[in-house]
Amino acid sequence: MSDNQKEPAGVDAAVTFLSGINTNPVGAASSSDAAVTFLSGMHQQSASNVSAERRRLGGGQSQRSVRLQSLALVKNSFERTWGVGLSGHACISSCFLVKAGAVEEQLPQAEYLRMVRPGLGTKVARRPAESESEHKTQSLPFCSKDYEKARMPPGTAVILEDARRKGLYRLYTRRNCHHVNTHDPLKAIGLVANVDDQVVLTIQAAINYLTKYMGKLGTGHTATSRIGGLLDDILCRMQDHETMTVTSLLSKLFIHTAVPDRSCKSSEAAAKAQCRRSGRRPAISLKYLVIDFPSYVGPCMVEGRPT
Amino acid sequence: MPAEEEAGGEADSRTDINHEVAEISVGSLNLHMQPLRPDVRDMISEHDAFCLQELTPATLPSVLAAGRELEYDAVSPAQRGHTMLEGFDVCMLLRKATLKRLRVGIVPLTAAGVRHMLHVRVQVKKNGACLALATAHCTAGKEEVMQRTAEKDVTWSAIEALTIDGCIFAGDTNMHAEEVIPQQYREQWDDAWEVDGANATLSGTWCQDWMETTHPLVQSWRFDQFFLPSYFTVTSHRKLSLICRTIRRSLPVLMLL
Fold first, then answer.
1. Measured between CA atoms, how close is A46 to chain B, in angstroms?
2. Domain limits at A49?
3. Residues A52 and A137 in one domain
4. Which of A125, A236, A256, B121 is within CB 3.0–4.6 Å of B103 for a Cys-Cys bond?
5. Rounded to 10 degrees, what is the CA torsion of A22, B229, B117, B144?
6. Interchain contact B207–A (C-beta under 8 A)
7. What would the DSSP string read from start to end of A14-82?
8. Other C-beta atoms lying within 10 Å of the C-beta of residue A155
9. How many pairs of residues across A and B have Cβ atoms under 8 Å apart?
10. Is there a contact between A68 and B25 if contact means CB atoms under 8 Å apart?
11. Cα B55 from chain centroid (whole Å)
12. How many CB atoms lie within 10 A of CB A115?
């Protein structure tokens, strides 16, 4: 950052990077309300024949364009040479002026976001807006939870050299995001187990999930009789003085539907037998925990001691 | 491989960022599957960065050898285990004295195609500016406009995704005279030839064997081009913060062990 910088009038920016010499106060940043504003590099030189319309678009467009002037073509440097290397193509060459500044000291937010959420673009996990046409939404890839799949920017996808190891190339596919991809090598190594996670981001997705598991019926059952039987089973175990909230009832109902009776019984029998041998208080080997997130209430199964 | 090792060693050395203006020269040539001749080698040595297209597997070793002798860092998808399905690919040579290679990226131009865009993030040693140099060889043929447009889309959006001080595309776009930069990129990208005054005498870059270079048709075959950005678009900081916050708040992961 140079010392001769001053914030241009009218800039309503949360972050403003000023570097180099800004001799064009009427440019993009002067009237922009962009949150990130760059005024870097030299004043536009040979490339200054940008049309007035472009300047207008740069200043006022809703996309919050930011103009970087760190690269310019050297005037009259474009050359063409015929007959090089027996090729039918001409060899073209140009000279460019380059000035540092745009990525100096601080990474712009877009890059930061890519580092924080690798594999994700800024538009991932976004529900289609109502304004988006049906055709447009149909063409976008959506997951079973109605969320748009990762759309990695092409530049950050495919084969890229590892930032820390020269010569090591890694394959980055569209689904290598650990938030969306069910296969996460790091997690698998850490847990020494296969994991199958699903991201549940909406209450509707949670309802769908519960319905799916509650709807698993045995032979000869109807949904009503199955759920009715389970409710009776739960309610019969309650004492007269006990009360239960609807959430609690649904949680218990889910637990009853999600786990086969046989596995519950065998686990409990094994636990009781172990307790008898050790002389300790009986414990339930499987415990189901309901996690209450700000925007979602859903069950989560954990293994271990009861709480 | 020695070039790789040298580049790896250089990564440790820091380049101070200053406000000096550095000048770099960039060249591009479609070799047209010809072997590397001494005049191409001389042409390479006159530039800080030189992009080659239609480089065959037979020519690649000589290009790598020339790069070593001239102290250039040679980068090609063929070095990374890519098979040249069409019998040729692209390559980039970077003068080590001027540019420090930071990271190489290989982007398929289209899902169905076999061609790649090669982009290299380099740091200009004189002032520490971070630059992306990219090259590609787009599909030829007048009837392949749609394919070519899709390839250019990938090229531009891939370069725009990088955070850098500037980027230069130098390659064989195979764009015919009537083809122009699409509307959505016209505000962000400049054609160096147009910026330099659109001199009609320098227009054509391809000439068939039976033609003279002064043939009227040649002017319309401006296949080899430089593009440089006139704008970068950075998404609003506030908007991104909001996205982060929303995701952090609503990211319950249902563990199904």
1. 7
2. 15-106
3. no
4. B121
5. 170
6. yes
7. SEEEE-S----TTSTTTS---SEEEE-BSPP-GGG---HHHHHHHHH-TT-EE--BSEEEPTT--EEE-
8. 24
9. 324
10. no
11. 15
12. 9
Q: How many domains does chain A have?
A: 3
Model ipTM? 0.82
Cβ contact B18:A100 at 8 Å: yes
Give the residue from B23, B75, B165, B251 with the most A CB atoms within 10 Å of its CB, the best one to mutate: B165
Choosing from A52, A78, A106, the residue where a domain stops is A106
Run means of pLDDT, 10 residues per run, chain A, 307 residues: 36 34 36 34 34 38 48 87 85 88 48 43 49 49 54 55 70 55 68 73 74 66 73 81 81 71 52 56 39 36 34
CA distance B75 to chain A (A): 11
Domain-embedded: residue A113: no
Which of B199, B122, B188, B230 lies closest to A73, judged by CA? B230
Shared domain check, A52 and A123: no
pTM of the shown model = 0.53
The angle that helices B60-70 and B2-10 make with each other, rounded to 10 degrees, is 40
| B2-249 fold | Deoxyribonuclease I; Chain A (3.60.10)
